[in-house]
Amino acid sequence: MSRRIVNITLDNLGDLPPKCRKCVFWELGPVSRARAEESGDPELEKESWVSSVLLEWGSCGKIAYVDGVPAGYMLFAPPQYVPRSIAFPTSPVSADAVLFMTAHLLSEFAGGGIGRMLVQAMAKDLTRRGVRAIEAFGDRRWESPACMLPVDYLLAVGFKTVRPHHHYPRLRMELRTVLTWREDVEVALERLLGSMTPSTPQGALRPVLPVLRFALRGRELIRPTEIRPVQPDQAGPDRVYQGQMYSASSRSRADFGLAPTICLTTCPPENTFMVGMAMMP
């Protein structure tokens, strides 16, 4: 059984369940919604809303397919694009958050983890776009599929209550930003490089780098001092020559705040090891 999750676009909007395709509970305010339903054209209003958000903000929903069959979907957007978001007693949505509006899963696919997959796909997408959190209004009296999300479902997929209410609490999920991820990677690299102390027989390599220090948290590289590399034609079995690799890949690593690679080559060169963003045989 194959599963895939794709962004909602105007091309696949028709894959939403017919009832959801006509629903504009979130997309319009109460007055505009009533007017759209009276005119008999809510589908056009929903299509117009999706088109506007796609153009001005980007992807605003996900559809899950199982073996090519639509199994469920979700919608989300910044609160300024969701008129209904100001109509709840626990409003407004936090300024740093995107609103998880609604989701629906076909009954034949219930219990298969599709709902959790949709939330994970939304969180991954928004994290890449620099969003700090997702918020949602839950329904404590939820009994059957509707425009609102049940509180139990939101709690099960990682949301926490930030504004309690007997009927419509507001819940929030914090997202790891790209900056936090980068800091974690840098800490891991510092620990890795700090533990890379090759054990070689005494005298096998002569020290040629009296001072070697990397700055992992910026673009600064403090170069080794007093380096006198041995020329390759003068190297013997117990001599070492040293060179720094300033390739395009090394410069790109420096641009991300990572240390360029230092290559220490022995004669014969088969014993070469590399310190930095590389392996050491």
Summarize the structure in words:
The chain folds into 2 domains: 3-176, 3-Layer(aba) Sandwich (Aminopeptidase), CATH 3.40.630; 200-275, no CATH class. Helix content is 27%, strand content 23%. It contains 7 helices and 13 strands. The strands form 3 sheets. Strands 1, 2, 3, 4, 5, 6, 7 and 8 form an 8-stranded mixed β-sheet that branches. Strands 11-12-13 form a 3-stranded antiparallel β-sheet, with no helix packed on it. A two-stranded antiparallel ribbon has the order 9-10. The longest helix is centred in the middle third of the chain and has 17 residues, at 178-194. It is globular and about 40 Å long. Residues 197-230 and 235-281 have low confidence and may be disordered.
Short description:
With 281 residues, the chain is an alpha+beta fold.
Please outline the helices and strands.
Blueprint (H helix, E strand, L loop, with lengths): L2 E5 L10 H4 L8 H10 L2 H15 L4 E6 L2 E9 L19 E9 L8 H15 L4 E7 L9 E2 H6 L3 E4 L6 E5 L3 H17 L18 E2 L6 E2 L17 E5 L3 H8 L6 E5 L6 E3 L6
Parallel strand pairs: 4-5, 5-6
Antiparallel strand pairs: 1-2, 2-3, 3-4, 5-8, 7-8, 9-10, 11-12, 12-13
